[in-house]
Every structure is written in C-alpha cells, then in structure tokens.
Amino acid sequence: MKKILLLTALLLNFPIEAAQICRTSTRSSPDAAKAIRRDSPTRLQWQHCAVGLNGQNCAQGRLQRLSFMQANDFVFEANRNKLEGHNDWHLPTIKELETLKSPDCVKPAIDLKRFPNTPSVWFWSSSSENLGSAWYLDFESGFSDQDDRNLANAVRLVRNKGLQDSRGKVR
C-alpha cells in the first residue's frame, strides 16, 4: 500500500507530456535549425520558432503569449530591428497560418520536423472581422476561430508576398 501511495505521489508531481498524435505511421522529428523556414508552394518564409522560443530545436527560452496589440507591437519592433536580417515581417493572415496546419496530426497539428517544439496552443493571425476579436489557429486541434484581442496567444511571424495560386498570382 505504501508503494502505491508513493508511486501515485510521484506521478502527480511529474506531469507526463502527451506525444503528438498522427494518423500516419511516419512521424517527423526535429531537423537542423534554420532561423527561417521557406514554404515552396506559397513562397512564404516563416519564423522557425514561436516568439519567445529559440535554439536549434526551439527548446530554449519561454513561449511569449501576447495580446493582439502586443503582437502588432512585436511585429513593428521585429521590422525596426531587422529580425533575421529582414524588415518585412507580419502577423500571418488566417489563410497563411492555416498553410502550416498538418491535417494528419494533432497536439500539435503541425509538422514537427519543420517547426519543432511548436506548442499546442492558439496562435494569432492578422485576420479580423470586427474591432473586438481576431482569428487564431489552435495548434492542438487544428481548428480556427475568433478570440478577444485583449487575450494573450502565441505568435509566429511570416514574410513574403502572400499565398499564390497555381498560376503564381497572389490571392
């Protein structure tokens, strides 16, 4: 009985992290770090790590959750300071953000080989239909919806001209 109580106490003190769940048997693993990830079909260039995380596998630092206004302030500062040598970063639109979604995976719903240690949380987009809320993508489930702009969510910046169709036209 003492062993069971001790084991229970240990398990309660050491949370067990859930692994990513994918429908396919080939799960990806983190690869060598690059500060920017290029997405060939869309010609978008993404920040490798979510804001606040860094290192080769985005395992260092602490995730920063920002209100919508703070996220836009971060974009301004990133461009002023030429983050990764560029000054054309922006919060992704919801369409841009959804290009990162891996339809076969949840917790998180993203390719962990390209974007290691992406937390299973809500990420802001720049898309908005009214002054009080903006669209986010939930990387735990892969669903998107609107959230109050005053609440704090994660951020990953993107740069380039935007989504392109099969003829190379920006949409």
Strand order of the largest sheet: 2-3-11-6
Q: How far is the first residue's CA from the last residue's CA?
A: 65 Å
Ranges where pLDDT stays below 50 over 5 or more residues in a row are 5-16, 25-33, 162-171
Mean pLDDT rating? 82
Q: In angstroms, what is the radius of gyration?
A: 18 Å
Number of helices: 3
DSSP strand content: 15-25%
Number of strands: 11
Helix percent band: 10-25%
Class per helix and strand makeup: alpha+beta
Biggest sheet descriptor: 4 strands, antiparallel
The ordered string of helix (H) and strand (E) elements is: HEEEEEHEHEEEEE
Overall morphology: globular
Please render the helix and strand layout as text:
Layout: H1 2-13, E1 21-22, E2 36-39, E3 44-47, E4 53-54, E5 60-61, H2 68-80, E6 89-90, H3 94-98, E7 105-106, E8 122-124, E9 133-138, E10 144-148, E11 158-159
Antiparallel strand pairs: 1-7, 2-3, 3-11, 4-5, 6-11, 8-9, 9-10
Descriptive account of the structure:
This protein is of the alpha+beta class. It has helices spanning 2-13, 68-80, 94-98, and strands spanning 21-22, 36-39, 44-47, 53-54, 60-61, 89-90, 105-106, 122-124, 133-138, 144-148, 158-159. The strands form four sheets. The chain has a four-stranded antiparallel β-sheet. Strands 8-9-10 form a three-stranded antiparallel β-sheet. It is globular and about 40 Å long. Mean pLDDT is 82; it is low at 5-16, 25-33 and 162-171.
Précis, in short:
This protein is α+β, with helices and mostly antiparallel strands and 171 residues long. It has 3 helices and 11 strands, in the order αβββββαβαβββββ.
